[in-house]
Amino acid sequence: MEPAEVRYCLRCGCGLTRRRRFGAERPVCPQCDYTHFFDPKVAAAMWVEQNGRVLLVRRAATPARGRWTVPGGFVNAWEDPAETAARECTEETGLTVSASDLLELVPGREHPGGAGFVIFYRGEITAGKLQAGDDADAVDWFGPEELPEIAFHATDVMIARWQAGHFT
After folding, report:
1. Same domain, 134 and 84
2. pLDDT tens readout for residues 137-147
């Protein structure tokens, strides 16, 4: 997938040209020699299990409105990904959750605004009351054989691993 076009230098505002730099064609400023690199968007998610069921949220926004995924979201530049996963889980589910360990890093970008990769953490509930919030309009627990329509490839990957017993 081709990145969005960058037309002006972030440093001096001059129009950019494309040149071969660091092994690829990249936007380069002819005035200050700035080279623009397209960095991936990073997302973090919280995998929470209870009584053999996984916690999922139903998306209230595009993309994938009405489908279900693991609580998560984009990592802010200043955030630790584990803190992002915990924050997003609280915002979307009402539960306070702490990251106990790193489970998986799933690559892929299935739509233009999507994450380049998703970092999944195992979560432990410490407080809160289950209720949908932020960009989720429903939240619930699902067993391996009663799953709803899943929103994203990364969640499908994690569910397949869970169903195969990789997280026990």
Report:
1. yes
2. 999 999 999 99
Considering the domain boundaries, does residue 6 fall inside one? yes
CATH number (domain holding residue 118): 3.90.79.10
- Quickly count: other Cβ atoms within 10 Å of residue 15's Cβ: 11
Q: Per residue, what are the HEC states of the chain?
A: CCCCCCCECCCCCCECEEEEECCEEEEECCCCCCECCCCCCEEEEEECEECCEEEEEEECCCCCCCCEECCEEECCCCCCHHHHHHHHHHHHHCEEEEEEEEEEEEECCCCCCCCCEEEEEEEEEEEECCCCCCCEEEEEEECCCCCCCECCHHHHHHHHHHHCCCCC
pTM: 0.84
Q: Over 90: is that where the pLDDT of 111 sits?
A: no
Residue 94 structural domain? 42-163
Cβ-contact 144, 162 below 8 angstroms? yes
The structural domain count of the chain equals 2
